[in-house]
Amino acid sequence: MPTLRSATANSPPAATPSPAAASTPRSVKRRLTPGRAGETPGASRHTSPHRSPHAGAGTVCSPKLLSASPKSSRKRLYGDLVAAEKPKWNPRDPAQIRAVKEALHVATVPSCELVCRDHEQRRVFEFCKGCVEQEKAGSLYICGCPGTGKTLSVNKVKESLMSWADEMGMETPDSLAINCTNLSNTSEIFSKILGQFQNRKKGSNKLSPLQQLQNMFSNKESAPRRMMLVIVDEMDYLITRDRAVLHDLFMLTTFPYSRCILIGIANAIDLADRFLPKLESLNCKPLVVTFRAYSKDQISDIIKHRLKVLEYDVFEPLALEFCARKVAAATGDMRKALGVCRSAVEVLEARLQDSDQELGIVTFDHMDIALSKAFKSAVVDSILCLPQHQQMVLCALANTFQHCKKKATTLGELNKSYIGICRSTQVPAVGMLEFSNMCMVLSDQGFMKLGQSKEDKLRRVTLQIDISDIGFAFKGNRFFQKCLEQPRC
């Protein structure tokens, strides 16, 4: 490819402009394209050497070239148009592994805004903002299942509230965060609140911290000037241990000169129905904000949002979708989803250490193993610890109920299904008496229930555990898995 200098040097000398061209108005000259009559000698200098021969005949507006080198000119012309190739992830690099695990850690707080909780944060912020503007106390109760972003959202609202107060030129409220599980006794919460008010008057030693707060908020002279945002986390502890302390806590917001903005956070949703009627009768019913469990789309969006800080792809899209669907169907707990993703990364890391496998990303298989570890129940562990023949009995029972659409069977029918599984796996079956004894042991352990009958073969058998637990326990055993899939009605 010729350089710009050589292309200009080899071009033929420009002809002398004709009188017609010389008399052409300037506006018409601007509309003339290179190669037509009236082309000026310097026109070739503005034509890109890389211009396509099929380009239109319109005016060429090429960028100014700073170098005659073809490499630099190409970089200058097309460098912004070519997307930079994303670096590949190297799971054998300890620094990259550490960065991935840190991004997926529960304790890692996203530097930017939280996703999927905009509506809830807006409600909490507007409530706190109204209390600060009116210099009026108030209470708010936040409930939701574990891992739904309650505490993280409240902390973000607190930061936004402080920034808003600074921008408006208002006095920034004090803040106090209390975790009820760290209290030595429930009444200690009033001591912590009392210690945060700087303008309080020293009360008598005979008065309890609660009484001092009540006196402080009852008199205009002793009332503090600055607002106080009190965040009480794990409020379930107060509800179950000492409900009187909970009532006194919310009643602090009803005093005429109170400066408390109380936000209580609890995990159980039904607890609000258990203590709110009493608070309503005391005229201190809080505003309730419920955090619903995360959906699969929300879980997927949050994980992708956390991984944006990385410059490489770590997970296969199908693996992330599998994780989001499984966790959303089970609990909707975001902490559980982050733990599963970290576990999947560790599964890939372990496989790379045990083999010379080529570098790759976290796949569906890695995520499947991580999910199996996370959602393994105590029932599954108990099934895996059973002797082989007792496992076959459970497999036969699950097969009967799964394919034959029965809710109960007899010991004789179950024995026939058990013998069929023994033949399929080429394991010698036990006799009827020993089989009956095995079923009694399984009944004592709570896996099945045996009815009463004069003949053992006619005893009614029902399953006491979930069929999915049996299938999950035998998922890695190809013989049992095959027996579960083949109908034996």
Automatic annotation (TrEMBL):
Low complexity bias locations: 1-26, 62-71
Cdc6 C-terminal domain residues are 394-474
| Chain segments carrying region Disordered | 1-72
InterPro entries from the UniProt entry: AAA+_ATPase (IPR003593), AAA_22 (IPR049945), Cdc6/18 (IPR016314), Cdc6_C (IPR015163), Cdc6_ORC1-like_ATPase_lid (IPR054425), ORC1/CDC6 (IPR050311), P-loop_NTPase (IPR027417), WH-like_DNA-bd_sf (IPR036388)
Q: Which Pfam families match?
A: AAA_22 (PF13401), Cdc6-ORC-like_ATPase_lid (PF22606), WHD_Cdc6 (PF09079)
Asked if Transport is a keyword of the record, the answer is no
* Record-level Gene Ontology MF annotations: ATP hydrolysis activity; DNA replication origin binding
Localization in the cell: Nucleus
Entry keywords, A to Z: Cell cycle, Cell division, DNA replication, Nucleus
Task: Quote the Gene3D superfamilies the UniProt record gives.
Answer: 1.10.8.60, P-loop containing nucleotide triphosphate hydrolases, Winged helix-like DNA-binding domain superfamily/Winged helix DNA-binding domain
| GO BP field | cell division; DNA replication initiation; mitotic DNA replication checkpoint signaling
Tell me which GO cellular component terms the UniProt record holds. nucleus
Specify the AAA+ ATPase domain's residue ranges.
Answer: 136-285
Is the Cell cycle keyword given for this protein? yes
PANTHER family found in the cross-reference section: CELL DIVISION CONTROL PROTEIN 6 HOMOLOG, CELL DIVISION CONTROL PROTEIN 6-RELATED
The entry's family comment says: Belongs to the CDC6/cdc18 family.
What name does this protein carry?
A: Cell division control protein
